[in-house]
User: What shape does this take?
Amino acid sequence: MKIGVIGTGNIAQYLLESINAGGKLEGEITSLFGRNQEVGSRLETKYGIKFYTDFQEFINSPVDIVIEAATIEVAIQHMEDVLRSNKDLILSSIGVFKDVKFFREMSDLARVCGQHIYLPSGAIGGLDLLQSANSIGGLKEVGITTRKSYESLGLELKNEEECLFDGMALNAIEKFPKNVNVALLLSIAGLGADQTKVRVIADPLVKRNTHTIEAIGDFGKMSLTIENEPMPNNPKTSYLAALSILSTLRNKGNSVIVGS
Ligand SMILES: NC(=O)C1=CN([C@@H]2O[C@H](COP(=O)(O)OP(=O)(O)OC[C@H]3O[C@@H](n4cnc5c(N)ncnc54)[C@H](OP(=O)(O)O)[C@@H]3O)[C@@H](O)[C@H]2O)C=CC1
Ligand SMILES: O=C([O-])CC(=O)C(=O)O
Assistant: This one.
C-alpha cells in the first residue's frame, strides 16, 4: 500500500517515523503534501519520500490512499480532489463535517467514485456504542467534557480551572477547531452537531488531554473517560489520535470487523 499524507506537522511526522522508519505497517508513505518547503525537504531526505507543494502533482502521484493530517480548511479544500482521483481518504480534521450538507455531498461523492472516507476514532472511544445505541433511534443524550491544560489550549496559565465553552458541538468546533474534532466524531456517530453537548475546560492540574463522554438512551447509560498522553511536539493533539490512524490503516480491508 502506497500512502500519501497531507500535512507536515505532528501527526504526519509521527506516521512517517512509525511507518517508514519503524516498519509498523505493510505499507509505505511515498508522497507528502504541505506548504513548508524547509520542513518538506528535511522529511524528504530523512524518510525517502517525495514532497509536493502543488496539490495536483501530489494527488497524481501513485498513492492508493490519502491521510489528511492538516487543518479543517485544508480538508475542505482538497477532499473532493482526493475522492475524484479515486483514492480512499483517512480524515483527522473531522470538524470539516460540521456542515451536514458538505458531509452528505462528500459521502455521495465517495459512493459514486467507489471510495471510502475513514473517520478514525481519534483521541476518544465509544463510537461503536453510540452507533449501536442509535441503530433504531433510541439514543437520547450525548455529551463530552474536554479538559486540557492551558498550554494544550494555547492559553496563558492560570491557577484555577476555567470553563471556556458550554454549548453544542456545532459552535464548539468554530471556537476550538484544533481541540474538539472529537466532538464532531461523537456528533456523526450519534445525534448530530446541533444536539451533542460540549464543555471545554482549561485545567491547570491536568497533564493529559482528558475527554469524558456521557450518553443516555434506551440502551442504558455510558460514561467513559479517556486520559490521553499529549504528543510531545503538539500538546493539543493526543497520542491516541495518531495511533488511531495506524489502526485504521491496519484494519482496512480486513475480513473480520471488530465492533459495530
Ligand atoms: N480526530 C481527532 O481525534 C483529532 C484530530 N486532530 C486534528 O488533526 C489535524 C492534524 O493534527 P496535528 O498533526 O497535531 O497538527 P499540526 O498543527 O502539528 O500540523 C498541521 C499541519 O497542517 C499544515 N497546514 C496548515 N495549513 C496548511 C495549508 N493551507 N496548506 C498545507 N498545509 C497546511 C501545517 O503546516 P505549517 O507547519 O506550514 O503550518 C502542519 O504541517 C488537526 O486538524 C487537528 O486538529 C488532532 C487531534 C485529535
Ligand atoms: O487530541 C485530542 O485530545 C483532541 C483534539 O485535539 C481534537 O479533537 O481536535
